[in-house]
Amino acid sequence: MSGERSMTMKRVLTSTLVSALFIMAFAPVTGALAEELRVPVGSQADRSDQSVPRVGTTQASVKASWGQPASIEGPIGHPPISQWNYGNFVVYFENDRVIHSVLTPQR
To answer: Which residues contact 102 (CB under 8 A, 6 or more apart)?
Structure first.
């Protein structure tokens, strides 16, 4: 019986050790990949007086409201993505619809 008990204890210890190593190897390392980004208040965009096209707006509606863009890039890729540059903001389209509008930093 002593030999059988010794083998059972070895299996339990081996199983426990393997489990502990597995947990340590795949456990997330908290904070190791975190990066803090700070943007000084003076360089943040003031959106209170800025109007930009909203998500879902058509290209025709954007032209009607903001006029002809200064430049157009694209469309490229699948689905086709294009961007219209208006100087103080850029509008990104997927097909014919706005997917994002971004204020251009003033330097």
So the answer is: 52, 89, 90, 92
- Which residue's entry shows tokens 């340590």? 24
| Rounded Cα–Cα distance for residues 45 and 101 (Å) | 13
Q: List the 71-76 sheet strands across, edge first.
A: 71-76, 81-85, 89-94, 97-103
In the chain, where the domains are located = 1-30, 53-103
Average pLDDT of the residues of the chain: 80
pTM of the complete model: 0.55
Q: For the chain, where are the alpha helices, taking DSSP H only? A: 2-26, 59-66
